[in-house]
Write a structure and sequence with these properties.
- By secondary structure, this protein is α/β, with parallel strands linked by helices.
- It has 11 helices and 5 strands.
- It has a 5-stranded parallel beta sheet, with helices on both faces.
- Helix 3 packs parallel to helix 4 and helix 5 packs across helix 7.
């Protein structure tokens, strides 16, 4: 019975199968005795969390059937001991601090090397906390300055922010161009520019970031 408790139980939640497979293989290399389960959306994550005693949840930010804020709140209410590590392709410099303030234990970039993944895993399972050296530095500077880093939305023009909100509502480019009386290609240019400034690649990411910064 004791032996079972020593087997760390980890859940990997990501809506891309190839990402789950790669991460699980990496975990198994460093923690061969770990029991790893996987889900591809928030709803499935909630079911497994309720059913199983898990030690660590490694979650992507953008998945179907929910939002990361709901997931964090759900875990805090139902399984407060469960450690949470965000595993995301979003820009760490812009977004990691926000997620830590929402109550997660760590943030790990999908661009991380296997050595960094091992460090993050060890830290999360041992202490429930992980931050990269860059993030620690940013947190230290923030504590000195007493001010949060500027919102990434401050770099957007009013027009870009307006279009960002309309994209997040799910409006197609044609509809936005009609509403704003601008050419479709102009809207497309604005969209590309704001995606570049926010360092994102999709509308779901945009929705999550707007929610994150309460835009």
């Amino acid at each position: 019975m004791n032996n079972k408790k020593n087997n760390e139980r980890i859940i990997v939640a990501d809506d891309h199968g190839i990402v789950r497979m790669g991460l699980i293989q990496t975990i198994k290399r460093f923690r061969p005795d770990a029991i790893v389960s996987e889900v591809e959306d928030f709803k499935s994550l909630y079911k497994v969390i309720l059913k199983e005693e898990l030690d660590l949840a490694i979650m992507d930010v953008n998945m179907p059937n929910g939002s990361i804020q709901e997931a964090i709140d759900y875990i805090k209410i139902h399984k407060p001991q469960l450690k949470i590590l965000i595993f995301s392709s979003q820009d760490e410099e812009l977004y990691a601090m926000r997620y830590l303030k929402m109550g997660v234990g760590g943030y790990l970039s999908k661009q991380s090397s296997t050595a960094v993944i091992e460090t993050a895993l060890t830290a999360m399972l041992r202490t429930g906390r992980y931050a990269s050296d860059d993030l620690k530095e940013a947190m230290f500077l923030e504590s000195l300055n007493g001010a949060t880093k500027n919102s990434p939305f401050e770099s957007l023009s009013d027009r870009e922010l307006q279009i960002a909100n309309k994209l997040a509502e799910g409006l197609p480019l044609k509809e936005i161009s009609n509403q704003l009386n601008l050419h479709s290609s102009t809207i497309s240019t604005y969209k590309n520019r704001l995606f570049e400034k926010l360092k994102i690649r999709s509308v779901p990411e945009l929705v999550e970031i707007l929610r994150l910064y309460n835009q």
